Amino acid sequence: MKSLASTTTLHNGLEMPWFGLGVFKVEEGQEVESSVKMAIHAGYKSIDTAAIYKNEEGVGKGIRESDVPREELFITTKVWNADQGYESTLKAFDESMEKLGLEYLDLYLVHWPVKGKYVDTWKALEKLYKDGRVRAIGVSNFQIHHLQDILDVAEVKPMVNQVEYHPKLSQVELLNFCKENGIQMEAWSPLMQGQLLDNDVLKEIADAHNKSVAQVILRWDLQNGVVTIPKSVKEHRIKENADIFDFELSAEEMQKIHALNEDKRVGPDPDNFDF
Predict the structure, then answer these.
(1) Are 10 and 136 in contact, with CB atoms under 8 Å apart?
(2) CA-CA distance, 202 to 259, in Å (whole number)?
(3) Which of 44, 53, 118, 129 is catalytic?
(4) Torsion-angle region of residue 247: left (phi > 0), alpha (psi -120 to 50) or beta?
(5) Binding site as annotated, residues for substrate
(6) Which residues participate directly in catalysis (predicted)?
(7) Confidence bin at 67 (pLDDT 50/70/90)
(8) What distances in angstroms separate CA 271 from CA 48, 51, 66, 145, 146, one per listed residue?
(9) Contact 148, 182 (CB under 8 A)
């Protein structure tokens, strides 16, 4: 983990950047296009979007207008809940690819574990993977029992599980389960939508390293072996978020951050969510 170009190797051998840009709630059009271009210009290789974000077209345009070859980038999108099921997922994938304007995708995720549908949805992702249209497949917001359901029937096991993950929700059991099963965990909302930036423990650690609280949290993600994709639309913040490869948190500092856990979510609970 020496730079923005540093990667983790997924269980199928594909290299995935440890750090990327998330575009949840980034407006379609100029805002998302410029956000993607600024990130790529700053050295980001990974961009994460989803069908429900309704900004795939802008992400695709930002990619095309950047000066980095497509094969050097790692692009993720997700199938939305209303489109889950076997045939409908295949159709949704085609629609996403048309909006993105890409010939292949690096990572396709099942956005939420919709009861009664996510196993069929997974079968569709396996087909897309076997057909060579996606280089890796995974899930998002899956708890251990959801993952177990997939592992029980999978011909191709998930390569990634993208979940809400931050110091107030450290999901230790889930992280350990993913590591034991060769599934790379990835953090969404790593900064808890800004709610952690005034935390005294994090401020003290940040001051000791002459870093921001956000940088400390993102560094904590990486040192826990979790891929992270903070969102920003401001150029200085995009650059600052990524400036986390020149310091290391001590074991004691890592433990202090772990101790902040309250199992507190800012997003929906995957077990109690009206899909």
Answers:
(1) yes
(2) 11
(3) 53
(4) beta
(5) 111
(6) 53
(7) confident
(8) 24, 22, 39, 10, 9
(9) no
Encoding tokens for residue 25?
A: 């709630």
Annotated binding site: 111
Q: What percent of the chain stands above pLDDT 90?
A: 97
Tokens of 244: 């986390």
Contact 228, 190 (CB under 8 A): yes
Tokens of 126: 């396996």
Nearest-CA neighbor of 162 among 187, 182, 145? 187
- Assess whether pLDDT exceeds 80 at residue 274: no
The per-residue b/e assignment along 125-140, b for 16 or more CB within 10 angstroms, e otherwise, is: bbbbbeeebbbbbbbb
Domain annotation for the chain: domains and CATH numbers: 7-195+224-233 (3.20.20.100)
Write out pLDDT tens, residues 87-141: 999 999 999 999 999 999 999 999 999 999 999 999 999 999 999 999 999 999 9
**Which pair of tokens denotes residue 121?**
């949805």
SS in 3 state form for the chain?
Answer: CCCCCCEEECCCCCEEECECEECCCCCCCHHHHHHHHHHHHCCCCEEECCHHHCCHHHHHHHHHHCCCCHHHCEEEEEECHHHCCHHHHHHHHHHHHHHHCCCCEEEEEECCCCCCCHHHHHHHHHHHHHCCCEEEEEEECCCHHHHHHHHHHCCCCCCEEEEECECCECCHHHHHHHHHCCCEEEEECCCHHHCCCCCHHHHHHHHHHCCCHHHHHHHHHHHCCCEECCECCCHHHHHHHHCCCCCCCCHHHHHHHHCCCCCCCCCCCCCCCCC
Nearest residue to 155 via CA among 123, 111, 177: 123
Active-site residue 53, yes or no?
yes
Mean pLDDT throughout 158-184?
A: 98
